[in-house]
Design brief:
alpha+beta; MDMPI_metal-binding; Mycothiol-dependent maleylpyruvate isomerase metal-binding domain-containing protein; 2 domains; Maleyloyr_isom; 7 helices
Length: 254
Amino acid sequence: MNPDVSPAEYVAALRDDVDRLAACAESGPLDAPITACPDWDLRALLVHTGGVHRWATQAIRHAAPPTSLDGPKPQPDASGDDLAAWLRDGADALAEAVGATKPDDDTWHPFPAEQQAWVWPRRLAIETMIHRWDAEVATAGESSLDPTLATAGLGEFFEMMLPRVLIREQATVPDVSLHLHCTNDDVPGGAGEWIVWGEGGEYRMEAVHRHGDAALRGTSSDLLLVMMGRADVSTVDLRGDQGAVDAWFALPGL
């Protein structure tokens, strides 16, 4: 957990991004293709995002795996205005559920991390920001990420999301090391750096500055887009062994 960002701040960021997603829904077109998710158009992305919010709300409220979503999904031919309203309703319910919990309350989630409620606000804020970026690129041709939230997203990626992929896919962890270094002026000293490596087939990670076999340097926004498959690794500064980078990016989900 990033102690510098409160659950309320994550929820505020999420609601801002939901408003921007809703604006994409209202302006359309709903059949705009989502480049990072080739099987999706804008409508599918909006339904997915609103569904994730409702699914997580159930997990937060009941501290158990969700068995259903609160309320029906939008109709297949729902208008952009209807989808926008549905997204905002889901964000309202989610904000209420987060506000009714403490960070160390018990919860359920599917990630390799402690089963405490602090996981959810960060996870959902980052998920929503990435899909808002997808939607704006699809409808307006360009977008951006909040650098503070992007830094939190990189920490979450290495702490929780990448380990989940490795476990789910039973993937072999590369025995070479990869170091990421955020170059943002707003990243405090000692933060915004991670190194990952394999040791005896096990995943290892430290949030420290240490030279690896290869390093990727860039703003937190650029680095997160690379790690999330939204930008090519050539968009950031690569130093060291190209083979080490290739080994990590050959993993499923990268």
